[in-house]
Amino acid sequence: MLDWKNFVRGKLSPMPMDSSKVDELVDELAQQLEDAYREARESGRTSLQAFQIALSQFQDWEKLRAQICESTNGSRLPVWQSKGFLSPRRPAVWIALALSCALFLVPSFRKALHLLPFSGEPTAWDENAFSENALARLEKSGDKQKYARALAYVALHCPDESRVVPAAEKAIALDPQLTWIAAKVSHANYLYPGYDPKPWLDRLQAWDPGNAFVYVLEAGAAVHSRWESERLTEKFSKGQLPQYLAANSVWREAMEKALAAPYYDSYARRQFLFDRDVLLETGLDRPSVLLVSSFEAAGPDFNFIQFYLDSLKVSQGNEQNSDRTGRLIAAHRQAILLGSNLRDDSESNFFLSLQVQQSAYESLIPLLRAGGHAAETDIAVQALEGLRATEKSRQSGAESSAAERAAFRTGRLLMAFGSFLPFLGVAVIVWIVSVSILRLKPGAASSLNTIAAYAVWSPLGFLISCLGVLTVFWPYSHSLAEFSDRAAFVSAYAPLDFGARWVSYLGNVWIENMFWSLILCICILSLGMVLLASVRSQRPPHQEAD
User: Fold this and answer.
1) What is the 3-state secondary structure (H, E, C) of 317-340?
2) Is the pTM of this model over 0.85?
3) With the C-alpha atoms ordered 458, 460, 466, 471, is the resulting torsion angle positive or negative?
4) What is the spatial distance between Cα 451 and Cα 535, in angstroms, rounded to a whole number?
5) Number of domains within the chain
6) Closest to 426 in 3D by CA, of 326, 298, 291, 518
7) pLDDT tens readout for residues 447-468
8) Residues 417 and 489 in one domain
9) N or C: which terminus of the chain has fewer CB atoms within 10 Å of its end residue's CB?
């Protein structure tokens, strides 16, 4: 004979009520089960079938316990007396929290977090890794090369300009092969009041005299001081820019040297490998940091090439036609060569290279015809058509490879999982605090029990979100050491980064300023709803009826 009372007591215990009430409930439910069992047996069912029929009356015992507690005491079942899968009494919930915390120790997971919008605006700078104290410790270590590289990184990426020049001076003094950082330190391409780029450019020219890049920087420095820039804008608006630039001897001589230089090297590849090595040395093996730093390389204003060709037409307008045409043809050929060198320097300069070459060819073809160079004219026309066809094929969308599209989709999926982490993280903290207080003080406010009951799914949800982030990012969790080509790295991670941050790029959404404020508002709203639900659940039945 089945002992229904012990069976029911085992299902209902513990209950937050007097033992007499518990005994009364046990007797009532046991009798109900026994009657159902007896009726099933009398109808010819087997013992097992009758047992199953009797139990079918109460399919969810945990729900029944909660209903009994609420109807008897007017409050929720205490979370520490719950027997659900996510009850704090169950090891599973604490295992889920432990696994979630363990994931934060996984480097790949931390890399993924730095790609998410709530991690802040991406930057190549890390104050802790390159602080004054960190540099002092590195200097004391005796590794001069590593110390010089760290100083050079400070010079390239530190937002505090007061540290840039001293760091650059010391880095170059320790290792003259780092002189190329002068291209960035010179600030030749943008206004910087009170700053003289000439000493840095002179140092760079002495170190790399055959590089066209250095002379285009010098040309930019000649017109990018504050007062010169204002005059340049005025001349540009009046259509007098060629005349103005032709009269600027410093700018004109720098452009002449640039077109005559044997090669072009913007140091983009050199800086990519340099930044990669320094980041690895300092433990910042994160693609988001290298991605930003790869776009911070110095770059001149390549419009100067066309401006220079236009200025030649102005400055040589009074010379004999044969001499003028010959000089212009030679200058345009040099511009075409410089344009092709741009493409060799970096794949990111592909369209810029096409633009420079097309513009030079378009001006060169009439000059060749005027000079009677029929064969060369035909060659130039064919070259121009080839450049236009190449540009059209690349602009058609073929350059967006399947891998890049997949990376963008992965980034959006990463953002979808990652967007739950802050909310669930706050919910987990609230749940832990609530259940801890209730454990220490079982008679604490019933609102804490309500909050813990509503947040009961947060530990499991947090673990699922963390695992989702790690799983989605895993194919891209390579070490920076595996990348030696800047174009390949950018192609792999730029679409991923854009996909993960696409919300912040749409409609000028101020996610870096409003994200945590939004989370705070949602938390306050959620807490208010929980408290209102708790107050309502404690109202006597006759008040609700009214």
Assistant:
1) CCCCHHHHHHHHHHHHHHHHHHHH
2) no
3) negative
4) 12
5) 2
6) 518
7) 777 777 778 889 999 999 999 9
8) yes
9) N
